[in-house]
Amino acid sequence: MASTPDGTTAATRRQRPALSRGLVTVLAALVLLFAVSVLFAPSSVTTGALQGMLPFAAVLAILAIGQTLVVMQGGFDLSVPGSVSLVVVIVTHQAYGNNAKVLPAALTALAVVLVAGLVNGILIGRLGLNAIVATLGVNALLYAGVLGVSGGTPRQTTDLLANLAGGNVVGVPNALVVAVLTVIITTLVVKRTVAGRRFEAVGANGRAAWATGLRVQRHRAGGYVAAQVHYWLGALLLAGILNKPTAYQGDRYLLPTVAAVVLGGTSLLGGRGNIVATALAALFLTQLDQFVLAIGVNYAVETLVQSIAFAVGVALYSIDWGRVRAKFRRTPRTAVSPT
């Protein structure tokens, strides 16, 4: 397969229209959701409700961007819950009541999740293990670390972290500012650098990328390491936003991160990913949860709604609707001559 000097391939370029459609679809769904919220659950779009929702949308966006980097390499990362939970307990337990210990605790948590990402990368990129099996095993090890650090007992966050992550500037939550900067930086790295374009080329077609001389295993492993950096950042914000996060705070973020990736139009088979669309999909899912709770639906329905959103995303971008329409289209019958 032909390749350009920056490492992109024809297979990579062919995916661009689908990604544009994904961004347009997410924007349309977001506008429709807010319109429905105004009509049927106005309490979910008040200033106070939005101020409370946006920090959590920012956290989900950052986590989902990390998942996007993995999916772009044709994989899945099931270690999201363990990574988020471990970062939260390290920061809240090691720096408990002492602002001076926040930075050392955060750096310790970063080192731990980088090791986890490296292990994922070696198992999947180097040894060729199944991504689901490998990341699920690493997730179990991370939860063992959660128990070892916290004993299952939550602790209150420090004042410094609460002010940094949970505060706001001119009415704009700090977490939202961090999420926007993360989207911009990640997009520039992936879309505007040679390394980023090669990263996309490897995800689009590993064999073609290998034929052009790209180090496929290194790029795939790098996706898991970069994802862990995003999990670390999102977990730090979460530890500051919540006054007393639980020891298993990451449990609820596995399905939403994958759903945001799918709704953003990133192909589950790998290739190009739209970072902006993923972030907007995270905002959509967070507001959708708030809307569902505002209309008085049971909390248990929240997971069902997320599952439905995930299924809709898969159906939109994975099914060849042209082939489906052709299958159900009636073909004209030709007249048969008596002879």
Assembly state:
single chain
- From the alpha-carbon coordinates, what is the Rg to the nearest angstrom? 22 Å
Dominant shape:
globular
The top-level CATH class is Mainly Alpha
Question: How would you write the strand order of the largest sheet?
Answer: 1-2
Helical content class: over 70%
Specify the biggest β-sheet: 2 strands, antiparallel
Class from secondary-structure proportions = mainly alpha
CATH topology: ABC transporter involved in vitamin B12 uptake, BtuC
Write the layout of secondary structure elements.
Blueprint: H1 10-14, H2 16-40, H3 47-71, H4 80-94, H5 102-126, H6 131-150, H7 159-166, E1 168-169, E2 172-173, H8 174-192, H9 194-204, H10 206-211, H11 216-241, H12 254-263, H13 275-294, H14 301-318, H15 321-328
Antiparallel strand pairs: 1-2
Structure description:
The longest helix has 26 residues, at about 215-240. The protein has 15 helices and 2 strands. Mean pLDDT is about 85; it is low at about 10-20. It has a two-stranded antiparallel sheet. Strand 1 and strand 2 form a beta hairpin. The chain is mainly alpha-helical. Helices cover about 70% and strands about 0% of the residues. It has one domain (about 10-320): ABC transporter involved in vitamin B12 uptake, BtuC (Orthogonal Bundle), CATH 1.10.3470. The radius of gyration is 22 Å and the shape is globular.
Short note summarizing the structure:
With 339 residues, this protein is mainly alpha-helical.
What are the defining features of this structure?
mainly alpha, ABC transporter involved in vitamin B12 uptake, BtuC, two-stranded antiparallel ribbon, 2 strands, 1% strand
